Amino acid sequence: MTLQILLIEDDPGDAALIAAFLRQSRFNGHAPRLRVVDTLAQARSKLLESVPDLILLDLALPDSAGLATVTRVQELAPETPIVVLSGHRDAEFEAQVMEAGAQDYLVKGEFDSALISRAIRHARIRARLEARLKLQDAALRAVASGIVITDSEAMIQWANPAFTQITGYSLEEAIGRKPKELVRSGLNDQALYEDLWQTIQDGRVWRGELINKRHDGSFYDEELAITPVRNAQGEIQHFVAVKQDISERRANEEKIRQLAFFDALTNLPNRRLLRDRLQRALTACGRNHHGGALLFIDLDNFKGLNDTLGHDVGDLLLIQVGKRLVECVREGDTVSRLGGDEFVVMLENLGAKPEEAAPQAEGVGEKILASLNHPYVLQGGEHHSTPSIGVTLFNQSDVSIDELLKRADLAMYQAKEAGRNTLRFFDRAMQARVEARAALEGELRHGMQAGEFTLYYQPQVDGSGRVIGAEALLRWNHPRRGLLLPSEFIPLAEETGLIVGLGQWVLEQACRQLHSWENSLPTAPLTLSVNVSARQFRHPHFVEQVLETLAHAGIDPRLLKIELTESLLLDNVDASAEKMSTLKAHGIGFALDDFGTGYSSLTYLKRLPLDQLKIDRSFVQDVLNNNSDAAIARIILALGQSLGLPVIAEGVETMQQRDFLANHGCIDFQGYLFGKPTPIEDFPG
Ligand code: C2E
Ligand code: MG
Ligand code: MG
């Protein structure tokens, strides 16, 4: 490529001389191509046409003179190197010309072809280097990363504007000082600095993150890379540090973490974080020979409060519960919220042996009970809440997290069953019970379909010993365990709701029996008592079903008696009374079973359409050798009389018991003395 040179020279002699010099010179093997103009105005129009590789500039032109000429030409061709041709040597002027942006300064008459060629070459090189430097400088200033250049002693020599922006230190404040004098926060490990210094001294790049301090004293997270720069001899002469303020990124990371691992309402760890910590605690247990405990906490009346006062108030309560829980535990323990009103507290660093850990965990549990029992002030109103707490201990990692949570949960349910506002421990026996229960439930379902249930009949007699009826008592012919009594399966049937179907079956069976009794004269007047449990009685279709069953069997409703317990009836007296009245209108009778064991609240009993009171077996049993039992029996009998209700005694085993009861006004009797519960084939009649 031929070098294009523009000569701006008004003296034709000088121009000719320079042209002659240049004809002899070679750039990349070619003589340069020269264009000559003699005014600045002409130079302008030429430069607009095309930009040359270099400008040779005479400063004394007809339309411009002196230093201003350099500036003007430079404005016309900012990137093009300029070699000034001056009429005289003047060191001070030369310096000004160079300062103004010219690349070289030649004095006319003092140069020949070789000198001008060399000046042209050097001017081009210098222009290129300057352009590159300018670009790099602009880049260093423009980047968002803070850049610091130090000497080998870490003394700052230069820093870019981003450094100022991040740290708050101006370039002037930074130069000559060490970074540690400016930004060290005291919040990083000393070991980190040692590693940093060691690494860069060894000539390697150090990358890491530091917490640093700004000029104004605030802290920021910094991502930092320090690169050692060696000189030609291989010695480290500089360090270049590139730093980023990552505070915002950190804040975002923290926000994400917060969302992923913490409950939004209470800011407590959520289930995920609890599991994570539990996993770590289990691993740590094996190592440090400590034990731990999980406390599963459920609020007893939360749903009610939430429904009546609204979710906003419910939320406030949960927040306060969370705060109280945190106050009950030590620093390293975890208080988490699983959701709803379920909280789990994880205690660590308890004794390794269960006998040590158990009282420690219980201590915390009691503290929690006491704390959560205090009234809560929510939106001005005072509210009360109690927790049920299930506790399980852990001391090795041989039990899974799920298993532990399940155990604590089970223990919590035990606490609920034990009457709430209390604490229960999980233990092996409890676990076994739970498993047996699950198995029993399956068997119960199956047994109902397989016809494994049967009714036994126990006679009821009047004062003269004549059989007047019977109580139908359920039995389960378990294929493996033999004949099971109701106490072994009724509670579970009740809990699982299976009692509804089972009870319906009993009712149908009883009606069928009544029907067959009706067909023969001696048995026609016999009544049959059927036990109905709470769940069954509360079922919305209970009344309908009883009536339908009776109608379907085509029997006299007056022969059917339903036995209910006090606790069942008192749970909702009005609803109970209403159901009973409907059935009673059809002739069905009602006996109050197990009388004496409940509240025996007269006020309520008067509101219920009862036909009979049944003294509980437990009073009958000791009526002769326990004064207080005798007294109770007498009072019940008196009560029956005052209410105008006949009383029947159950569990009568001896003649003496019968006589005592009869003497105090008992009308009817039931018990082994008159007959045990038997299959219908063995029933007298
Ligand atoms: P319950 O209604 O109080 O029944 C009386 C219980 O006392 C029966 O126990 C009966 O066998 C027992 N018993 C009767 N006389 C004597 C006696 O002289 N000495 C002794 N030691 N015991 C006597 P069982 O059959 O085990 O029933 C227990 C409970 O199971 C019943 O108490 C009743 O609450 C419930 N139950 C029985 N059958 C049904 C049923 O079909 N449905 C429902 N829901 N519950 C039933
Ligand atoms: Mg009964
Ligand atoms: Mg009873």
Describe the overall structure.
With about 675 residues, the protein is α/β, with parallel strands linked by helices. Strand 14 (about 335-340) and strand 15 (about 340-350) form a beta hairpin. Helix 13 (about 310-330) packs across helix 14 (about 355-375) and helix 20 runs parallel beside helix 22. It has four domains: about 5-140, Response regulator (Rossmann fold, 3-Layer(aba) Sandwich), CATH 3.40.50.2300; about 145-250, Beta-Lactamase (2-Layer Sandwich), CATH 3.30.450; about 265-425, Alpha-Beta Plaits (2-Layer Sandwich), CATH 3.30.70.270; about 445-680, EAL domain (TIM Barrel, Alpha-Beta Barrel), CATH 3.20.20.450. Strands 20-21-23-24-25-26-27-28 form an eight-stranded mixed beta barrel, surrounded by four helices. Strands 2-1-3-6-7 form a five-stranded parallel β-sheet, with helices on both faces. It is built from 26 helices and 28 strands. It binds ligand C2E and magnesium ion (MG) (2 copies). The site of one magnesium ion has 5 residues, from strand 25.
Strand tally, please? Answer: 28
Contiguous runs where pLDDT drops below 50 for at least 5 residues: none
Structural class: alpha/beta
Strand content: 15-25%
Number of helices: 26
> What's the overall geometry?
rod-shaped
CATH superfamily of the largest domain: EAL domain
Features of the shown structure:
single chain, 28 strands, Beta-Lactamase, 5-stranded parallel beta sheet, 46% helix, Rossmann fold, 26 helices, Alpha-Beta Plaits, rod-shaped, binds ligand C2E, 685 residues, binds magnesium ion, alpha/beta
